[in-house]
């Protein structure tokens, strides 16, 4: 695909940022074959301009997010648009959330109809979409039961509480119940006080200490160290991501996960797979752990499950569920009818074997493409990944490249120590869109020379 066709001249509007390369929406559309029958994203152009939004944000928002100068006002498929109509190819997916892209034609009517029917009802009552979703998750996984939350961090909080409950309930004669946890280098499990305690990067934890005590961080993949500590009898649960996203796109080995399973079985510790980022089709398997042939006692899910609406879930075996009594955990919003109906629409699509196969194929194609196009550049150390979670490790910080790509109409994110590009496109992305992304990356690579 010729780069001249893909972007980005002449400007279609008056740019508010001098560094931004404006995008020729019509040309990009022609090249990327946007569905012209779909809702026109440019109709979403609103009176408020990007500059106005960014200035207002500075005044009224708590400064938790360091944002690049980009206001996103609409999306369709794998494209996002700013208020001025500039188009971006989205390989960011709201950090691996928008697996069906934006405005999926099967998801929208389900959500619209459920919004008309019933949006929220307290967990004090039964609700149909919640039970349906739980049935579906149980049917397509190792799990016997489901607890719903509103986010990934809350799903992990639930897993922490369930693990402690399980230990007290299952080993009542033990003088001191196992209450401690193992987590691993480069792990990310969330930002609430339990989940952040399991998150390896110190800067997420240290400003808020004391966080939950009793967490030991071991080297990801270190079978001996994990086996020894699990044997101590103090470990309530081992938390591990089969593929680490935030930590730099690192995949576990089969031997590592198998050895954790064996050690947990021997000692009575629980094995928790955090599939908040890597689960639900991203690897080309419905659940990432299927690729390893190892099942957990608890799996936590979140990001893509409701197609962009907030959800989390802890899927557990019967033995774990048996230790949880009424009132021991709960949530006001979690598992509401709207969210669960949305999640059913997502699960329906993603769990189809042909959908999963297409993710595998596209992932393989994308990795080969990136290796071929970028591999010769001396800054590129490795292209790795699994399905459509792909990492490109650089020998310098990736942030200048991320900025350059954004200015050229491609949204990507960093991971790890900031030297890894994380490419997590919507799972519906097309091969021409992947080619476009690889071409933009190739064209932008020279900015790394300035980082030498
Ligand atoms: C593996 C993993 N676990 C947990 C979380 C936390 O999820 P949330 O941001 O929904 O709380 C994330 C978020 O990036 C994640 O990648």
TrEMBL record:
Places the protein is found: Mitochondrion
GO biological process: L-arginine biosynthetic process
MF-aspect GO terms: identical protein binding; N2-acetyl-L-ornithine:2-oxoglutarate 5-aminotransferase activity; pyridoxal phosphate binding
InterPro entries the UniProt entry points to: AcOrn/SuccOrn_fam (IPR004636), Aminotrans_3 (IPR005814), Aminotrans_3_PPA_site (IPR049704), Class-III_PLP-dep_AT (IPR050103), PyrdxlP-dep_Trfase (IPR015424), PyrdxlP-dep_Trfase_major (IPR015421), PyrdxlP-dep_Trfase_small (IPR015422)
Reported cofactor(s): pyridoxal 5'-phosphate
Reaction(s) this enzyme catalyzes, per UniProt: N(2)-acetyl-L-ornithine + 2-oxoglutarate = N-acetyl-L-glutamate 5-semialdehyde + L-glutamate
EC numbers: 2.6.1.11
PROSITE patterns recorded: AA_TRANSFER_CLASS_3
Pathway membership: Amino-acid biosynthesis; L-arginine biosynthesis; N(2)-acetyl-L-ornithine from L-glutamate: step 4/4
Entry's Gene Ontology cellular component terms: chloroplast stroma; mitochondrion
A Pfam entry, by short name: Aminotran_3
Keyword list, A-Z: Amino-acid biosynthesis, Aminotransferase, Arginine biosynthesis, Mitochondrion, Pyridoxal phosphate, Transferase, Transit peptide
Main localization of the protein described in the UniProt heading: mitochondrion
Membership in a protein family: Belongs to the class-III pyridoxal-phosphate-dependent aminotransferase family.
PANTHER family named among the record's database cross-references: ACETYLORNITHINE AMINOTRANSFERASE, MITOCHONDRIAL, AMINOTRANSFERASE CLASS III
Name recorded for this polypeptide: acetylornithine transaminase
Provenance organism: Malus baccata
């Amino acid at each position: 695909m010729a780069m001249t066709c893909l972007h980005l001249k002449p400007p279609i509007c008056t740019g508010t940022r001098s560094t931004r390369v404006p995008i020729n929406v019509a040309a990009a559309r022609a090249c990327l074959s946007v569905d012209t029958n779909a809702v026109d994203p440019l109709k979403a152009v609103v009176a408020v301009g990007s500059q106005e939004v960014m200035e207002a944000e500075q005044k009224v928002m708590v400064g938790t997010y360091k944002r690049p100068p980009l206001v996103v006002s609409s999306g369709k498929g794998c494209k996002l648009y700013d208020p001025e109509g500039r188009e971006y190819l989205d390989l960011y997916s709201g950090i691996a959330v928008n697996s069906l892209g934006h405005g999926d034609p099967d998801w929208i009517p389900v959500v619209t109809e459920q919004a008309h029917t019933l949006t929220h009802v307290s967990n004090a009552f039964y609700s149909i979409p919640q039970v349906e979703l739980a049935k579906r998750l149980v049917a397509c996984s190792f799990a016997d039961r489901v607890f719903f939350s509103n986010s990934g961090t809350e799903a992990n909080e639930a897993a922490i509480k369930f693990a402690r409950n399980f230990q007290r309930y299952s080993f009542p004669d033990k003088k001191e119940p196992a209450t401690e946890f193992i987590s691993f280098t480069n792990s990310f499990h969330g930002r609430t006080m339990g989940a952040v305690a399991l998150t390896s990067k110190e800067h997420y934890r240290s400003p808020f200490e004391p966080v939950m005590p009793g967490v030991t961080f071991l080297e990801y993949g270190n079978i001996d160290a994990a086996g020894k500590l699990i044997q101590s009898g103090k470990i309530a649960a081992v938390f591990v991501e089969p593929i680490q996203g935030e930590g730099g796109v690192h995949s576990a080995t089969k031997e590592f996960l198998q050895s954790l399973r064996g050690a947990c079985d021997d000692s009575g510790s629980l094995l928790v797979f955090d599939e908040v980022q890597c689960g639900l089709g991203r690897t080309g398997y419905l659940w990432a752990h299927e690729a390893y042939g190892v099942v957990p006692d608890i799996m936590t899910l979140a990001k893509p499950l409701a197609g962009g609406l907030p959800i989390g879930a802890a899927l557990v075996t019967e033995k774990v569920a048996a230790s949880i009594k009424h009132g021991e955990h709960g949530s006001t919003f979690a598992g509401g009818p709207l969210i669960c109906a949305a999640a059913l629409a997502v699960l329906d699509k993603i769990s189809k074997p042909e959908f999963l196969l297409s993710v595998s194929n596209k992932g393989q194609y994308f990795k080969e493409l990136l290796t071929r196009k970028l591999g010769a550049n001396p800054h590129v150390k490795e292209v790795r990944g699994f399905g459509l979670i792909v990492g490109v490790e650089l020998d310098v910080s990736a942030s200048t490249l991320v900025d350059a790509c954004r200015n050229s109409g491609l949204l990507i994110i960093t991971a790890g120590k900031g030297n890894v590009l994380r490419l997590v496109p919507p799972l519906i992305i097309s091969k021409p869109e992947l080619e476009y992304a690889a071409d933009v990356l190739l064209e932008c690579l020279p900015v790394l020379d300035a980082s030498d």
